[in-house]
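INTERNAL AUDIT FORM
Audit reference: QA-55
Scope: verify that the stored structure record matches its stored sequence.
Auditor: D.O.
Record contents follow.
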Amino acid sequence: MLIQKSYKTELNPNNKQKTLFVKACGVRRFAYNWGLNESNKFYETTGKGLRSGELLKRLNKIKDEQFPWMKEVSTYVVQSAMHDLDEAFDNFFRRVKNGEKPGFPNYKSKRNGLGGFRLYQSICVEPNRIRIPRIGWVRLKEKEYLSTSNVKINSVTIKEKAGKWFVSLQVEEEIKIPENNGSIVALDLGLNSFVHDSDNNKVVAPKPLKKHLKRLQKLQRKHSKKKLGGKNREKHRKKIAKLYLKITNIRNDFLHKLSTKLTKTKSTIIVEDLNVSGMMKNHCLARNISDISWYEFVRQLEYKSQWYGCEVFKVDRFYPSTKLCSNCGNKKAKIGLSERVYHCDKCSFERSRDYNAALNLLKFYSEKLPIDHGDVKPLEMCSVEPSVN
């Protein structure tokens, strides 16, 4: 099976290479802003926008005279910036068409971080280093991780986070799907127990934001009191960025390990199609929900299921798995968040609220799937790539 896959690891550049990285980020940011400005001016006079091809032609005509410093980085950096601008406008018009909040493309600012840049060609990868155009060979901190054989490299993205540089390699790779003879399991996602499955197993999330929240608040208070543009303010900004990166790494490590284990050992995984964005509007729960990342976990289950011969089924979000009794099928009119043990008013059956919900999901799958596919959504076999943030 041919899939698109991303590999991400940390780079170990020297000081000269770091300087070239910063220049490439600056050129990418400048090219994006220049293209956005040209497109806006052209629209004001003609009522039409400019695509990346025309913008590149215009920039190439004046680049040698007005912007000679752009030659210090690869031309692929400028091309990727124009393609990103095209994508930003496409997303804007799509949202307008669908009646959503438009979100017109904004100018890039260095205040929001250095960002990164993307390259499409002239990339060479070895077990302990990677060659980047106009920069040369850059060492990798983790050796023999990036795929170097039997793959087609589509693009390479270099990004800066908290003073560290990371490379993300997107490739097309041929894999052999293994035979998966694991059991069927239903997962109930919650806040107290991140996962409570139909085998009565519990998994508790690390909740790194909650653990480091006091330290984060202390750093942010100190940062707000520092003088704007001062060196001490910049030092505290870097400390905050490092702490955020640590929180993100802890969360991603937990999600990747759990999703990989489940897709490797289970033949079918049943989950609810939760409306996470709607639940985030509850300000009492928003921080806890974002800290455990339900949406990202389900997304990882979906694309990893293709790699390990597993199937993922989403049950409609309106199916009342929490209100139903898994013993007699009686449905409660309402059940509060504080009610952690499900008690059936009809048969006096008692069971853990989350375990009861997981059993109902499994029961729904086994009873309804052969007859009616309406409420159960099988995963569409499409290319879904993992996050590189």
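Auditor finding: record pair retrieved intact. Residues 9 and 142 are 7 Å apart (CA to CA).
Action required: none
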